[in-house]
Amino acid sequence: MDLQQLRFLVTISKTLNFSKAAEELYISQPTLSHQIRRLEDELGVRLLERSTRNVELTPVGRECVNIAQQIVELSDRIMEIAQDESRRFAKRLNIGVLAVYPQLNISSVITEFQALHLNETVNIHFDWSIALMDRLLRKKTDVIISNIDIDRLEPAVREQLEIHPFIRDYLYLVVKDTNPLAEQETVPLEEVLSQRLFMPGRASSANQFFVKAVTTAGFRMPDFVECQSIMNAFNFVMAGSGACVLSRHVAESYLKEGMKLVRIVPEINTYTAIITRKELLDRPLVRGFIQFFLQRQNE
To answer: Could you check whether the bond before residue 102 is cis, i.e. omega within 30 degrees of 0?
Structure first.
């Protein structure tokens, strides 16, 4: 028994005529007759008495129609509620942004977009890259702006995503200017590993890219102090306690006087992208924000 069969039964109960009911339902009369017979066979009772001239409900048929009518009406109401929510949802955009990006121009771009769409709601959520991707895949967020290692994505996950890289960068070692490495323009990865490292959270993209480079080079990832914010890590660097690894454009946003950036070799690439699920590209608000954002990045 399914909802469609109940809807067929309710329609016949109103017309008491298979031809008229089939016409209202936009199906053929044989199809309608077949579905009603299937419903009766499944229930094990006769719902309709048929003759060459008319159709009548059996007593049990009348009882079933009363309940079927309620089920159909409730089902239609559920659809109305869902459609209303869908229309409301179409005017809401949930954006996830890498936690370090409030220091960059991205926040002002989002604000400008909101000003152009006053009838829509734009929500912003800040987090580390792993958490942002998780929210996107679990449909908690519509668009994320984050660093991403495309090569590490599972093929099935990659297939779901629309990815637009807009920044290519490299990892740098951040040290105090009194650190001997501050005099160098580049620093080998092996020397980076000799430093006491203060790193952003394990869920950060800088951590992911760095761990991948270390393990790919055949080194063991050293223990490091996990800091909940970049500012905490930089405070330890300024105190001369050790060093930090970050991408250049993020590090420069937080850099203090007395600190130096040294490029790590071999180069460790990082990529920042605006990402959504392909299924959301049909939503004008999602598509429009991505186009607006990329246009502003190219200015």
So the answer is: no
Query: CB of 8 within 8 A of CB of 25?
Result: yes
CB atoms inside a 10 Å sphere around CB 42:
11
CA-CA-CA-CA dihedral for 81, 287, 151, 204, to nearest 10: -70
What's the pTM value of the predicted model, to 2 decimals? 0.62
For residues 269 and 263, is the Cβ–Cβ distance under 8 A?
no
Tell me the pLDDT band of 90, cut-offs 50, 70 and 90.
low
Number of domains forming the structure of the chain = 2
Domain ranges, residue 69: 3-88
> Alpha-carbon torsion 173, 178, 179, 180, what sign?
positive
- Rounded to whole angstroms, the Cα distance separating 112 from 149 reads 29
- Does residue 122 lie within any of the structural domains? yes
Cβ–Cβ under 8 Å, residues 231 and 103: no
- Which of these, 145, 164, 140, 141, lies nearest to 106 by C-alpha position? 145
Residue 67, SS3? helix
Looking up tokens 């330890």, which residue turns up? Answer: 236
Cite the DSSP H helix spans in 90-222: 106-116, 129-137, 155-160, 189-192, 205-216
Mean per-residue pLDDT over the chain, rounded: 87
